Amino acid sequence: MVSSVSDWVKDHRNEAVKLLQELIRIPSPSGHEKACGEKVAEAMRVAGFDVARVDALGDAMGVLKGSGGGRSLLMNGHIDHVPTADMIEPYSGRLMDGSPFGSPGEVVYGRAACDMKAGVAAMVMAGAYLRDEGILLKGDYKVAAVAQEEVGGAGTMSTIERDQFLADVVLIGEATNMDLCLGHRGSMKMSVVIRGRSCHASAPERGINALYKATDLVTIIRNDLIPHIPADPLYGKSSLAITMIEVKPGAFNVVPEECRFYIDCRNTPNYPAEQLYSDLQSLIKSQSMKDPEFNAGVLPTPLINGQKSFTGFYTDPKKFPVVKEAENVIENVLGKMPTRKTWTFATDGRLYSWLGIPVIGFGPGDERSAHTAIEHVKVDDFLKTIEVYASLAQKVCA
Ligand SMILES: [Zn+2]
Questions:
Q1: What is the CATH number of the domain that holds 47?
Q2: How many CB atoms lie within 10 A of CB 393?
Q3: Which domain holds residue 329?
Q4: Which residues surround the ion ligand 1 when the cut-off is CB under 5 Å?
Q5: Residue 54: pLDDT band by 50, 70, 90 thresholds?
Q6: Residue 281 is part of a domain; what is its CATH number?
Q7: Are residues 132 and 27 in the same domain?
Q8: Which DSSP helix (H) or strand (E) runs through 276?
Q9: pTM for the full model?
Q10: Residue 4 C-alpha to ligand 1 middle, in angstroms?
C-alpha cells in the first residue's frame, strides 16, 4: 500500500533534516559549488533518480523518468549562496529553537538555510518519496540544483543552453513563506558619470570637484525621482537604490575629475528602462541649467559580478491553469489557501518564463531572513514543502 506523503515525511523526518544540514555544511559561495553539487547528485542517486549528474559549473541535474504522455515538471533551486559576512558559525547547520530569531519552534540555522538549500533538499526528498512508494508518473520529475544564481544565473543558463534541461512546468523553490509566488519585477542597472576638473587638493578652488557635483545629483534623485516612480497593480512598487560610487583619479590629495555612481532599479512594466533613462536625463538637464559647472551623462553599466539588466515576469493564472492546480495542492497540504504574491527579489525563474514556460514559486523560509546574519528555516515548513513538492509532481506529471 502506498503511504500518504505526510506519513512518509514523518517517517523520514530525520533523514530529511540530515540532508539539509549536510548541504549547509558544504560551503558553496557563488563560483565554488562543485562539492555541494556532487553531494546533491549523490543524494539523488540514493533517492533512486534515474539520472543524476553534475556539470562543469557544479550544477546537479536529476531526473525521475516518467512512463510517457504526461506533463514534465522541473524543480529549480540554487546551491550557491552570498558571503557569510558576520554570521556566527555559518556552516553549522545547527538544529535549534528559533525564538532568538523571532521564529519559535525548531529551525535549521546557517548560510543558505532558506536561500535556498532547504528548497533543494525538499526537491530531492520529494523524489525519494515518489521512488520509495513506487508511484509511477507519466511525465518526468526533474531537479536542477544550480550554481551562480546569486551572481546573474550562469548555472541555470548553462542547464538550459547546453543541456536543454527544460520541462512543461517549472517550479522555483526560493523562499515564499509557504505562499505562491507568480513572478517578480525586472532589474535595471544604470550608472551616471559626472565630469569635473582635477586640481591639487590644497587649492580646491582651482578645480571642479566631481564628487560634490555627484552628491548634488544623488540628493536630487532621492528627493525628486524616487518618491514619484509609479507602482503597478500586479508587482507593487518599483524600487531604486544608489549602491556604489567611485572617483577618478582617487588620490588623497587630488580633487576628483570624474565621479561615477551606480543605480539598481527594480522596475515594474509601467516603469521601463527608457523612462528611467529619460527621467535621469531631465534631472541632469535641469541641474545643468541651475549650475553651469554641472556636466553629467547616463551610461550603460558595465558587467559587474555578472549582474545585468533584465525584465521581470508574471505567470498569469488566466493563461496557465497550473497556477490553480498548484494552489489546490498547497491548500490540501497546508489546510489553507496560499496567497498569490510576487517576490521582492529576482530569481532564475525569468530565464524559463522568457521561453514561454509557466513558472510558479513555492519554497520554505521567509525571504526577510535571506542574506542576513540570522538565516534559518523552520523545520515544519521544510517538511511541509516536501509534501507540497511530491503532491505537485503527482498532480502535474500524472
Ligand atoms: Zn535565492
A1: 3.40.630.10
A2: 29
A3: 5-184+312-397
A4: 115-116, 174
A5: very high
A6: 3.30.70.360
A7: yes
A8: helix 273-290
A9: 0.90
A10: 30
